[in-house]
Design brief:
This protein is of the alpha+beta class. The protein has 29 helices and 40 strands. The chain starts with a helix and ends with a strand. It binds one RNA strand of 87 nucleotides through helix 7, strand 11, strand 15, helix 11 and helix 23.
Length: 956
RNA sequence: GCCGUCGUGGCGGAACUGGCAUACGCGCACGACUCAAAAUCGUGUGACCUUACGGUCUUGUGGGUUCAACUCCCACCGACGGCACCA
C-alpha cells in the first residue's frame, strides 16, 4: 500500500472545509474560548517560507490547544492597503485594487494548502470599504477627543515613495521600505497623540507575557527620563528660556545654553529684527550677528539626518551675540548658542550646557572656548564601612614622545597602573606627586601641566592593612623634561615586584582598568567629561550633597519643576499616497477642520486613473476634483476634502477586534462578542513590528477602553516571535541571490505534513537560521516510518505491554509540555525517540496507545493523523477535536536508572540499579565494582557524594 | 558609544534546579537487499594518541568557585538585534 500524501491531504482539507469544523462558535458548552492569532499577511501574491514558518508552527500550537479542549478561534485575513500594491500597479499598469484582490485569491489557495485550522468565515480584508469605514470611524473618535490633530512641522519625507513617514518607519535615517535617505519637509499632517499614553504604554508592559527583548525595545523606544524644567532669564528680554535637564544637580556648572535652530525664540527675535531692517528697536535686545544665525538655520534645514550623522557628530553652532542668559543658580551671565546637536523635538528644544559633566557639551565648549566648571566630584571604588580617610594623588606623566609613565605589577598583582601615593601631613599636592614619581620611578625633572579642579573620592579595601579606606584623590598631570634619574626609593613590599614602563596611549587605553587611574587618563588625555554621580563642589550652599540628594533641592531653589520626559513622539499617520484609507475630514474656509458626518461614512476611495504620487507633496486624491470639492457639513459652503490617506498601521491596529465580528454593518464590532474572545490569548508573528504594529495596537486598545468600547487595556496577553529562515548559504533570502526556498515546491515534493513537521523540527522557533535542503528528508522519513508502524495495529490487542508504559507516558508529557512552551523541535524529537524504541517492539503496543500515537502527531501532521485515525483505527473524524492524551505521572517514572560512578571528577563506571536504592546500598555496590576497586587500590577515600537517581562521586 | 541576546561535532541543534556533554535529525563511511542504481534496512561517526585494552583533550578565549561547570562568578574576543547628539 502506498501513501499518496497529495490525495490524502487534499481529501481531508476538503472534508474539514465542507464540515466547517474550524469555524469558531462564540460559545461552546463546557469549553473555554481561546483566541489564537497570527499576524495577518500583506497580500504580496506569494506565500513565502517566512509565512510558513510563522503560520505552520503557530497552527501546531492552535491544534494542541484545541485538543486541550479549548474552543479555539484562529482567524486569518489580509493587510491589504499599502505601498507595494501601488508600486506594482504603477509598474504593471493594473489598478491596485485589481492587483490586490487577485493576490488575495492566489494566496488564499496557498494558505489553504498548509492545512491550517483557520476560520475563513471571519476573513478580514482591510482595503474593502466595509473595513476601512471603521478606520475612518475610529479616526473620528480620536479626532473628537483631541487625539487626532493636524499640524505643520518638519516631517520625515521619503523622496522616492513621495510620502511622509512615521518616526517608527525611519531606520537609520532611511525609509524603512525603500532605503532612500529621508529628508525633512514642512507639510501639514495628521498625527495621533500616542504620547498621551506614554506612561501607560510603559507601565503595562510589566504584565504582558511577551519576549523580554520585545518589551525592552518598547521601553527604550518610549524612553522615559526623569528630570526638571528650569527657566533661564534672558537679559533685556521678557521671554525666558525653559530647559529640560536630568541633571539639575549640575546647574552651577552650566556655563552656556543651546537652543535648537528651530526654537521659537530665535524665530521671534529674527522676525522682529527683520521688520526693523537690522536696526534694533531702542531698548530691545537683539541678535547682533543675525545674518550668520539665519544662515546656520537655513543650513540645518537642508541637512538630512544622514548628513548629520555623516559629519561624525562634529559639533557645529553659532552664538547669538549680544544675547545673554542668566544662570538662575549663581546669577552669572552666560552665552546662548544655536546648534543642531539640540533637537527641537525633545524636551523644550533648549538645554543648559554643563561641559564638565556632559560629553557633548565638553566637545562643544572646547570648540568655542567656553569655560568648563567642575561641580561634581566623582566617587569611584566600592563603598566601605567606616573607612579611614586620607588624601592621595594620582600622577600622570607624559614624555616628549607622548608616551605615558606606568608601573606594571604583572597580570596577577594589579596589572598596569599610573603612579599613585598618599599625601603626608602638611605636604603640598604637587610636591607629593613629584615625590611619588621620584620614589617609584627615579624620574626627577617634571613640569607641572595641570592639577585637577575636583578630587576623586575613591573607596577601597586594603588587604595589606585589612581595612577600608576613603581616599580623596587629586589628579596631577606632568610632562617629563628629560631622562635624568635618581635611585628609586622602594620598600620591601615593592622591590622587584614591578617594572617601570613607558607605554603608548593605546596600551593605556587597553590595559589600565583600575577605576581611579582610568579616570585620570580619561580626564587629561582623552578629555572626557565625568557624567556620573558624585558629590557637589563649587555649588554654593549645596556643596557636599550627593547628586541624588541635590537634584530636588537645586530644582526647588531656582523655582523649577520636576518633569518626566518621553522620547516617544506622536504618531504621524498622513500619507500622500493613493492606496489607503481616506481621512474623513473636510476643510472649510469658514469652519476649519470638520469631521465627515458618521452617516456619510465610508468616504470611499475614488477610482482614479492616475494614482502616481506627486512631487509637490500633495496626495493623488487632490487631482480628483469630484472627490476634492464638497460642501461643508456645518455651514453648507464650498469646502475641500482632506486628500491624504492613513498609514496602513492604522488598519492593523485593530483588525484583531474586527475578526470577532467581521460582518457588523452598524459598528466596528459588538462589544459583547469582543468580551467573549479578547484579549488575544496567543499572538504569533515577527519581531520586526516591535515598535510599530505592536505599539500602535496597544495604544488603540487603551483608547478604545477609554471611550468605553472595551473593558481591557492590553490587546495581546501572550506574544511569541518566530525567527527568520535564511537561505542555504546562511544569507538573507532574496531573488537576486537566488537562495529563495519555495514552499509550494516543497509541498509538491514532500507534502504539507512533512513541511510542517520539518519547520517544527529545524531548530529553536524564535531563532530561525539557514535552510538545510536535505534536512527535510529527516521529517519525510520519520512520517513515513510513523505511518508504517500503524501496520502493526491489532484491534484485538487492548493494552500495551508493561515495559513500554514509561516511554509512552513520558512522551505524552514531553510532547505536550514542549508544544505549550513553543519548543516544537524537541517535541518532534521526543516523538522520534519514541518511534525508534517502539519499532524494536512492534507487537507491544495496544489499541488505546495507537490512538494516543495518532493524537500526539496530529498537531504537526494533521492530515496523516486524521487518515490513521479514520482508516486504520476506524474512528469517526475528527481526531482534531479529540482530547489530548492524559499521562499517568506514576508511569512516567522508570524503576531503574543508570548509576554513574565518578572518581576524582571523572566518569569511570556505570551500572543499573533500582530507582529506590538507598545511599548505603549504592555505596556498597559501587565499592564492589571491579573497575572501582582497581582505581581505589592502595588509596584512601576522602569523600563520597551520592546524588539520588544520578551518580556517586568518589574523592580520593 | 549605551542596552539586550547568543557563541556546543562537518551542519541544524539537545542537555531539568550545577550531576554521564554532543539526545534527535542531516551529512558521511561501511554493510545488507539489487544484475545495477534509487529507495529501504543495519552498523559506525567530536578530536587526538594506541595493533589492542585503554588513555588524554573538548561546549568562543583566559582565569576562578566546586567532589562535579555548556550551566555560577570575573575579564576578554566574536556574531546578531535594538537605541543612538534624547540633555
Amino acid at each position: 500500500m502506498t501513501y499518496d500524501f497529495h490525495k490524502i491531504e487534499k481529501k481531508w482539507q476538503a472534508a474539514w472545509k465542507k464540515k466547517g469544523q474550524y469555524s469558531a462558535k462564540d460559545q461552546v458548552k463546557g469549553k473555554d474560548n481561546f483566541y489564537h492569532l497570527v499576524m495577518f499577511p500583506y497580500p504580496s501574491g506569494n506565500l513565502h517560507i517566512g509565512h510558513w514558518y510563522n503560520f505552520a508552527p503557530a497552527d501546531v500550537y492552535a491544534r494542541y490547544m484545541r485538543m486541550q479542549d479549548k474552543n479555539v478561534m484562529s482567524p486569518i485575513g489580509f493587510d491589504a492597503f499599502g505601498l507595494p500594491a501601488e508600486n506594482a500597479a504603477i509598474k504593471n499598469g493594473i489598478h491596485p485594487e485589481k492587483w490586490t484582490m487577485k493576490n488575495i485569491k492566489m494566496m488564499r489557495t496557498q494558505l489553504e494548502s498548509m492545512g491550517n485550522s483557520y476560520d475563513w468565515s471571519r476573513m478580514v480584508v482591510t482595503c474593502l470599504p466595509d473595513y476601512y469605514k471603521w478606520n475612518q470611524w475610529l479616526f473620528l473618535q480620536l479626532f473628537h477627543k483631541g487625539l487626532a490633530y493636524r499640524k505643520k512641522a518638519p516631517a520625515n519625507w521619503c523622496p522616492n515613495d513621495k510620502t511622509v513617514l512615521a518616526n517608527e518607519q525611519v531606520v537609520d535615517g532611511k525609509c524603512e521600505r525603500c532605503g532612500t535617505d529621508v529628508v525633512k519637509k514642512d507639510i501639514e499632517q495628521w498625527l495621533f497623540k500616542i504620547t498621551d499614553y506614554a506612561e501607560q504604554l510603559l507601565n503595562d508592559l510589566d504584565k504582558l507575557d511577551w519576549p523580554e527583548r520585545t518589551k525592552l525595545a518598547q521601553k527604550n523606544w518610549i524612553g522615559r527620563s526623569e528630570g526638571a524644567e528650569i527657566d533661564f532669564a534672558v537679559k533685556g528680554l521678557k521671554e525666558k528660556i525653559k530647559v529640560f535637564t536630568t541633571r539639575p544637580d549640575t546647574l552651577f556648572g552650566a556655563t552656556y545654553m543651546v537652543l535648537a535652530p528651530e526654537h521659537p525664540l530665535v524665530a521671534n527675535l529674527l522676525a522682529s529684527q527683520m521688520k526693523s531692517e537690522k536696526a534694533l528697536p531702542a531698548g530691545r535686545q537683539g541678535i547682533a550677528n543675525w545674518g550668520e544665525v539665519e544662515k546656520y538655520i537655513a543650513a540645518t534645514k537642508k541637512k538630512t539626518d544622514i548628513d548629520r550623522l555623516a559629519e561624525g557628530k562634529e559639533k557645529t553652532g553659532v552664538e547669538l551675540k549680544s544675547i545673554k542668559a542668566i544662570n538662575p543658580a549663581n546669577k552669572e551671565e552666560i552665552p546662548v548658542f544655536i546648534a543642531d546637536y539640540v533637537l527641537s523635538t525633545y524636551g523644550t528644544g533648549a538645554i543648559m550646557a554643563v561641559p564638565a559633566h556632559d560629553e557633548r557639551d565638553i566637545e562643544f565648549a572646547r570648540k568655542f572656548n567656553i569655560p568648563i566648571r567642575y561641580v561634581i566630584d566623582p566617587v569611584t571604588g566600592s563603598p566601605q564601612k567606616n573607612p579611614a580617610e586620607k588624601d592621595k594623588i594620582v600622577a600622570l606623566v607624559e614624555n616628549a614622545k607622548g608616551e605615558i609613565l606606568t608601573i606594571n605589577w604583572g597580570a596577577n598583582a594589579g596589572g598596569r597602573l599610573l603612579i599613585g601615593g598618599t599625601v603626608e601631613s602638611g605636604e603640598d599636592i604637587v610636591k607629593t606627586a613629584k615625590r611619588e614619581v621620584l620614589e617609584e620611578t627615579g624620574y626627577r625633572n617634571l613640569k607641572l601641566i595641570d592639577v585637577s579642579k575636583e578630587r576623586v573620592h575613591h573607596q577601597y579595601f586594603s588587604y595589606n592593612r585589612n581595612k577600608g579606606f576613603l581616599a580623596h584623590t587629586t589628579l596631577v598631570y606632568f610632562r617629563l623634561e628629560n631622562n635624568e634619574k635618581d635611585e628609586q626609593v622602594l620598600d620591601d613590599t615593592e622591590k622587584g615586584k614591578f617594572s617601570v614602563e613607558w607605554v603608548t596611549k593605546d596600551q593605556v587605553r587597553k590595559e589600565i582598568n583600575e577605576s581611579l587611574h582610568r579616570y585620570t587618563f580619561d580626564k587629561f588625555i582623552e578629555g572626557t567629561a565625568y557624567s556620573g554621580d558624585g558629590v557637589l563642589i563649587n555649588s554654593g550652599k549645596f556643596n557636599g550633597l550627593t547628586s541624588e540628594g541635590a537634584k530636588g533641592k537645586i530644582t526647588e531653589f531656582v523655582g523649577g519643576t520636576t518633569k518626566v520626559q518621553y522620547r516617544l513622539r506622536d504618531w504621524l499617520i498622513s500619507r500622500q499616497r493613493y492606496w489607503g484609507t481616506p481621512i474623513p475630514i473636510i476643510h472649510c474656509p469658514k469652519c476649519g477642520e470638520i469631521a465627515v458626518p458618521e452617516k456619510e461614512l465610508p468616504v470611499k476611495l475614488p477610482p482614479l486613473k492616475d494614482f502616481k504620487p506627486a512631487d509637490d507633496g500633495r496626495s493623488p486624491l487632490a487631482r480628483n476634483k469630484k472627490f476634492l470639492h464638497t460642501k461643508c457639513p456645518k455651514c453648507g459652503g464650498a469646502a475641500e476634502r482632506d486628500t491624504d490617506t492613513m498609514d496602513t498601521f492604522v488598519d492593523s491596529s485593530w483588525y484583531y477586534l474586527r475578526y470577532v465580528d467581521p460582518k457588523n454593518k452598524k459598528r466596528p464590532f459588538d462589544p459583547l462578542r469582543v468580551k467573549k474572545w479578547l484579549p488575544v490569548n496567543m499572538y504569533i508573528g515577527g519581531a520586526e513590528h516591535t515598535v510599530l504594529h505592536l505599539l500602535y495596537s496597544r495604544f488603540f486598545t487603551k483608547f478604545l477602553r477609554d471611550i468605553g468600547l472595551i473593558k481591557f487595556d492590553e490587546p495581546f496577553k501572550a506574544l511569541r516571535h518566530q525567527g527568520i529562515i535564511l537561505g542555504p548559504d546562511g544569507q538573507k533570502m532574496s531573488k537576486s541571490r537566488g537562495n529563495v526556498i519555495d514552499p509550494d515546491k516543497l509541498v509538491r515534493e514532500f507534502g504539507t505534513d512533512a513541511v510542517r513537521t520539518y519547520l517544527c523540527f529545524m531548530g529553536e522557533y524564535s531563532k530561525g537560521g539557514p535552510w538545510n535542503p536535505t534536512g527535510i528528508l529527516g521529517a519525510v522519513r520519520f512520517l513515513e516510518r510513523f505511518r508504517k508502524f500503524f501496520e502493526n495495529y491489532n484491534p484485538k490487542k487492548k493494552d500495551s505491554d508493561k515495559e513500554i508504559q514509561p516511554l509512552i507516558h513520558k512522551t505524552i508529557k514531553k510532547v505536550g509540555d514542549d508544544i505549550a512552551s513553543f519548543q516544537f523541535n524537541t517535541a518532534v524529537s521526543a516523538l522520534m525517540i519514541m518511534l525508534n524504541e517502539l519499532e524494536q517492539k512492534p507487537g507491544a503496543v495496544g489499541k488505546s496507545d495507537f490512538e494516543m500515537l495518532a493524537k500526539l502527531i496530529a498537531p504537526m501532521a494533521p492530515h496523516m493523523a486524521e487518515e490513521l485515525w479514520v482508516s486504520v483505527l476506524k474512528n469517526k473524524p475528527s481526531i482534531h477535536f479529540s482530547s489530548w492524551p492524559k499521562y499517568d505521572a506514576a508511569l512516567t517514572k522508570e524503576n531503574e536508572f543508570e548509576l554513574v560512578v565518578q572518581i576524582n571528577g571523572k566518569v569511570r563506571d556505570s551500572f543499573r540499579v533500582p530507582i529506590d536504592i538507598t545511599e548505603a546500598e549504592a555505596k556498597k555496590l559501587t565499592l564492589e565494582r571491579e573497575v572501582v576497586k582497581r582505581y581505589l587500590a592502595g588509596r584512601e577515600v576522602k569523600r563520597v557524594i551520592y546524588v539520588p537517581g544520578r551518580l556517586i562521586s568518589i574523592v580520593l
